[in-house]
Amino acid sequence: MIHPLIRQLTAEGPVATDGAWGTELQARGLEPGECPDAWNLTHPDRVQEVARAYVEAGCRLIMTNTFQANRIALDRYGLAERAGEINRAGAAISRRAAEGRALVFASLGPSGKLLDEFPEQALYAAFAEQARSLAEGGAGALVVETMSDLAEARIAIGAARETGLPVVASMVFDTGKNKDRTMMGVTPERAAEELTLAGADAVGANCGAGIAGCVSLCRRLRAATGRPIWIKPNAGLPRLIEGRAVYTTTPEEFAGYVPALIEAGASFIGGCCGTGPAFIAAVHRVIVQRLPSR
Amino acid sequence: MPDLTSLYTAILNGDAKAATAITKEALAENADPLEMVNRYMVPAMSEVGKRFECEEYFVPELLLAARAMKGSLELLRPLLTERGSEPTGRVVIGTVKGDLHDIGKNLVASLLEGGGFEVIDLGADVGPERFVAAVREKNANFVCLSALLTVTMPSMRKTIEALRAANLRDRVRVLVGGAPVTQQWADEIGADGFAPNASAAVTLARRLAAA
Ligand code: B1M
To answer: Do A177 and B55 touch (CB under 8 A)?
Structure first.
C-alpha cells in the first residue's frame, strides 16, 4: 500500500523537489571537513536561507539539512550525542522556511560504514533515533537517500517506517562503465524490487553521475516497481578550476532533461550536489508548462 | 612445497575462514611463507583487482578478498620477519585533510599489505603535519594520498609542500589516487605517480620500489 500522502501528491503529475544543501551551505561558508548538519544548531539562519530559497523556487516539498545526522556518521565529528537535537532542529528549520507552502521531507543518509563493520542492531537504533527526532521536529515524510548497500537501505527503511510517516528510498547509481550500479554492485531493477519489498512508498535514484544517465535509470526503476519514482541527480561531477570545485552543468541544461524524465515515469524531480535554487526554478517551469491546463 | 591452489581460490572467493585454515595447515607442513605469499596470495589479489576493473567484482567482493588475504598474512608475518625478509617498502597512507571518505583508501592499504609493503595507515582527514610526522618517525619511503572530493584535492598539494618544507620530499615517493584525481593533477602538484585503482597502486608502488 502506498502511503496516502504520496499518492495524493503525485496524483496530478510530477512534483518538483528541492536541490542540494551541502554545496549551498559551502557557498555560505561551510568548510570542507566541517559537519554540515551541526549548522542546524550553530547557523540556523543560514540553513533556513537555503530552505527558503527552495520554497521560493517553487518546490512543493523541501528536505532538511540532516543527511549525515545519524549518530554513527556524527560520531566522526564527535557529535553522536547531539543526534536528537540536530535532527529536531533540522526539521524545525525547514518547517519554518516552508510556512505551510511546502511539505518537509526529511533526509536520512548512509552511516558511512560498511555494514559488517557495525552490528545491525546498532545501525537500526541509529536510524530509528534519527527518524524519531525528525518526526518530533515536524517532518511530514522521511527520505532514505544516497544508499549504496541494499542491506543498509532496508534497515533504514524499517527504522523510518516505525514513525508511521511515508518513506522514500533512493540509491546512488554511479559505478560501472554504464554508471548503472551502486558502488556495492546493485542494479536499478534489484533496487526497485528490494526497496519496494522493504516497504518504501516511493523509490528512486539520487546523486550519481549527472542527469543524462538518470533517464534510463528512471525507466528501469519504473519497469521494476509500482511505486512512484523519485529522481534527484547531481549537476555532474565538479572540476577543479583555479582551486575551486566547479559544477559545469547549467540550470537550463539540467531542466532540458525534465521532459525525458517525465516520459520515463518520474513522479518527483529535483537535484543533488551542485544544483541550487536556479536549477529547481527551471525544473519547476518545465513541469508547470507540461501540466494539462484546466 | 605443497600445492596451495586452494589458498589462491579461498582468497579469490573472499573466504577468510578457509584461507586461514589452509594457511595454518600449510605452515604445519613446513611450507615456505614467502613462497606462499608470492605464488598464491599476490596472484590471487591481482586476479581480484582485474575482476574489479572489469566489473565482475564490486566493493563487497574486493573487501572480502582483502580480508581473507589479511587473515593469512597475519599468520605469516611473524615468520617472514623472523627470517629477516624485508618489506618491499614502508608506506604511510591516509585520506587528506577535510576528506572523510576512507573505503577506497582502506582497500589500497590492504592490497599494499598483501603486496608485501609495511603500511602505516593514518586514517581519514589527515593534515599535512601528520603525514610529515609519520614519514619522519617511521622512516617511510612511500606516501599514498587519497582524496574523493574535488574540494579536498588541494590538500594533496599542501601535503607535498609540507614534505618539501620538512626536507623529506626527496626521501619519499608520493603517490596519489581517488575518484576525482587524474594523472594530470598528479603531474601538476608534483606527485611521483597516480593510480586509478587499488591494484594499479600496488603495481605502481612495486615498480617504483624496484627502480
Ligand atoms: C596511491 O594512493 C591511492 C591510489 C588509489 C586510490 C587512492 C589512493 N584512493 C582511492 N584510490 C583508488 O582505489 C580505490 C579502489 O580501487 C578507489 O577508491 P574509491 O574511493 O574511488 O572507490 C571505493 C572503492 C568505493 N567508493 C567510495 O567509497 C565512495 C562512494 C561514494 C558513494 C561516497 C560515499 C560512500 C560517502 N560519502 Co561522498 N561519496 C561519493 C562516492 C561516489 C563514488 N562512487 O565515488 C562522493 C565521493 N561523495 C561526494 C560528496 C559530495 C560527499 N560525500 C560525503 C559523505 C559520504 C559518506 C560519509 C556518506 C560516505 C563515505 C563513507 C566512507 N567511510 O568513506 C560528504 C563529504 C564528507 C567529507 N567531508 O568527506 C559529501 C560532501 C556529501 C554531503 N553533502 O555531505 C561526491 C564528491 C563529488 C566531488 N568530486 O567533489 C561523490 C563523488 C558523490 C557524487 N556522485 O557526487 C580508487 O579511487
So the answer is: yes
> Are B22 and B4 in contact, with CB atoms under 8 Å apart?
yes
Q: To test the ligand 1 pocket, which listed residue (B57, B148, B149, B152) has its Cβ within 8 A of the most ligand atoms? A: B148
Report pTM.
0.91
For residue A114, give the nearest of B103, B149, B150 by CB distance.
B103
What is the CATH code for A14-290?
A: 3.20.20.330
Cα–Cα distance, A18 to A105 (Å, whole number): 10
Domain residues of chain A, as ranges? 14-290
Cα A198 to middle of ligand 1, angstroms: 26
Summarize pLDDT for B134-169 with one digit per residue, the tens. 999 999 999 999 999 999 999 999 999 999 999 999
Query: Are B205 and B151 found together in one domain?
Result: yes
Domain residue limits at B196: 90-210
CATH number of the domain residue B13 falls in:
1.10.1240.10
Residues 6+ apart with CB under 8 A from B167: none
- How far is it, in rounded angstroms, from Cα B111 to Cα A178? 26
Per-residue pLDDT tens over the stretch B40-77:
998 998 899 889 888 899 999 988 998 899 899 999 98
